[in-house]
Amino acid sequence: MLTINNLVKHRGNQEILSGISFKARPGRVTGFLGPNGAGKSSTLRILLGLDRATSGSALINGKPFAELHNPLATVGAALDGFGAHRMRTGRAHLRWIARAAGLSRSRVEEVLEIVGLTNAAGKRVGNYSLGMGRRLGIAAALLGDPKILVLDEPVNGLDPEGIRWIRTFLRERAQSGNTVLLSSHLMGELAETVDDVVIIKHGKIVADGTLEEVTGNHHTLEDAFFALTSEHTGDVV
Amino acid sequence: MSVPSSRKITQILRAELDKLVTLPLTWLTLIVTFILNLLLAAAFTSAGLQGAAGTQSILKIGLASMGYLQAGFIILGILATCSEYTGGQIRTTLTTVPWRGLQLSTKYLALAIITIPAAFIIAASGVLYAFIRMRDTAVVIEIDTMIKTLVGATGYLTLTTLLSAAIGALLRRTTPAIVVLLSYYFIVSPLSRDFLPSIKNYFPDTAGYYMYMPPSSDEINVLTPMQGTGISMLWTLIFITVAIVFYRKRDA
Amino acid sequence: MRAFNAELSKLFSLPGIWLAFLIGAFAPVFIASMDSIAQKEEIIAGVSTRLPEVGYIGLALGVQGVIILGVLAVSSEYLAESSESGGGQQITTSLTVVSSRLHFLLAKAGAVTVISILLSVVAIITTLSATHLVLGEYTPAFDWLKLIGAVLYWTFTALLAFGITVLTKNGIIPLAVLIINTSVVSFSFLLSKVTKLALYLPDRAGAEMFMFTSDRFLTPFTGGLVMFAWVVVLFIAAAIVFHRRDVAS
């Protein structure tokens, strides 16, 4: 269970997040949507303890990230970018993570197999394509076999096969009682994967509910998204 | 904040060691430093052999390249901390090990574990080279003086590496860190020795100099090796502490 | 010309470039003033042995600023040290905008040259005024030829840094080598004790253009020529390597 409670973040004079609250529940895939620069990544970074909130809280099973006893086995996170040094090999990258969390080397080979990177594991990360980089990020997130997954734009750069794979994979994770939170701006893709939807715009939540609730009278999730986030809409929530 | 067990600390330390060892730049830096140091030692030895024969101290000539040698270790220290910020690795690090103070401290420890043997081997190789080339002409040196000096040199290089790593962690970008540190060690510090002779012994590099240089009688207000070590260590600790404080407060 | 303007705007939008400006414009003044203050008594008493060097020492060390400039101009194209970028290198964009690699390299070198000249002129003006301020009537006369020599020394050094970085693609090595080499005890100074050939190394030869060394080996003019030859050779090597190399490798 992820609980975001009245989160505010200032950077300089700018207000990035102005008091957002939502929950991501076990057994469900929660989609976190918003236009570029709406505050999606900032929220996830605060949730993962990378950035500090100005006020409010982002809790994982009721605790801030830094107080988790075994973070890698609790939350698996893949943020934007590769998250790995360009000159290391993919396998070496996963191995030091496994080492830090006290996991075995065979687990590294397992996750490489799951994400389909076994053949490229000996290559330097700098030579990876965007899609391979995403797969490496997801592999790192899965290392500790966590109950909670937090993924920022997971399908970004993946090929169609990879997109289908991650869709079924996330559905399976949720069905076996895990919590999945993913941010995206690909509506069509998201509509096929998520159960709940949270839409953020200019640091404020503009919609929060199940996929059906948020879609409402609109034809598709995409229509609902544009109705909620375009500049000319009136007072919707 | 929960306190991780000692088993966890060992795991984190081994992960930090893994990170350093699997980084090709670490090895490249050390190997290049080793080779350049031997070349410099050769140059200094040739120059020394041409000079007044018989009165040359092997230690002094073997360690004459220390001034350049430290550049390799400065780069090593910077690479160790700044490499976290390449490709966004820092996010992976902090989602794996969210205890920031502990994480950075173990990084320094891991760095020291790698630096100490490397520094000793590299410093000793220079002295050994000078010894082989000069054993006929130079005055005999006692083995315990040699070991004491080499230990001092190793300590100095290790402290310099850690200090550089702390500056690297503060600046987070390789280029400014290299510019700042190299221009301090190679331009500002030699100049300030002329301009500010009264306090020159209290800078990290000049104080550290006394850790390995055999005492000479013609200099006034010299420090003992222990005083030099103390001052040098104090600087390193101050910078490490500042780096850790910032690291904990800052958005990653 | 458009490529040149583009290179200028690329350089000015780099955050690291301000470090280069800061060092290039202020370090010489600072060092020259400190040096003048330290020597003032001796100069007034007329016993200073280093009188003709006053001021120039700052210019010799402030060259670091343009070293940073030359290195950054190239390494910024290859470096992706931001936490958000997914490994993108600017060089791919640059070469799709300016398709001729030689033009690209020339435009970049041109931008580096122009900024180095400007920076060295600023440094000379501030250094001269600071020396005057400290020493007053005892200030030694500055020789125009030598000042032009200093401008050339700065520009050539920036271009050397530029050429080396094209070859290494990585800023660490050229920065380390060149910064250490501007120090008081440079590699080339050390080498010159072993072999006289080291006096033909670019920094030693170039320094003859404006520094007073006790054991003068080359005339200022030949010194400048030797340094220029180094720049040309390095630039040709850089152009060949850059032309042949795959961008992504």
From TrEMBL, chain A:
InterPro entries: AAA+_ATPase, ABC_transporter-like_ATP-bd, P-loop_NTPase. Gene3D superfamilies: P-loop containing nucleotide triphosphate hydrolases. Belongs to the ABC transporter superfamily. The keyword Secreted does not apply. PROSITE patterns: ABC_TRANSPORTER_2. Residues 2-227 form the ABC transporter domain. One of its GO terms (molecular function) is ATP binding. SUPFAM superfamilies: P-loop containing nucleoside triphosphate hydrolases. This is ABC transporter. Keywords: ATP-binding, Nucleotide-binding, Transport. It comes from Paenibacillus selenitireducens. The keyword Transmembrane does not apply.
From TrEMBL, chain B:
The chain crosses the membrane at residues 21-47, 67-87, 108-132, 152-171, 178-196, 226-247. Keywords: Membrane, Transmembrane, Transmembrane helix. This is ABC transporter permease. It comes from Paenibacillus selenitireducens. The lineage of its organism: Bacteria, Bacillati, Bacillota, Bacilli, Bacillales.
From TrEMBL, chain C:
The lineage of its organism: Bacteria, Bacillati, Bacillota, Bacilli, Bacillales. This is ABC transporter permease. The chain crosses the membrane at residues 12-34, 54-74, 109-135, 147-168, 175-201, 221-242. It comes from Paenibacillus selenitireducens. Keywords: Membrane, Transmembrane, Transmembrane helix. The keyword Mitochondrion does not apply.
